[in-house]
Amino acid sequence: MKPKASKEQVSEVIHKIKSVGLTPDVSSGEYQTVIGIVGDEKKIDFEQIKSMDGVLDAIRIQVPYRLISRSYIPKDVLVKVGDITIGKDNPPVYMAGPCSIESYEQLYRIGREVKEAGAHILRGGAFKPRTSVHSFQGLGEEGLKHLQAVGKDLSMPTVTEIRSEIDVEMVAKHSDVLQIGARNMFNQDLIEAAAKTGKPILFKRGFSAQIDEYLSFAERIVANQNRNILLCERGIMPLGGGFKSQTRFTLDLNAVPVLRKETPFPVIADPSHGTGRRDLVLPMSRAAIASGAHGLMIEVHDRPQDALSDGAQAVLPEDLKKIIKVSNLVHKAIRESESPFSSDVSNGSGRA
Ligand code: PEP
Ligand code: MN
Question: Could you give the domains of the chain?
Answer without folding.
Answer: 7-60 (3.30.70.1140), 79-338 (3.20.20.70)
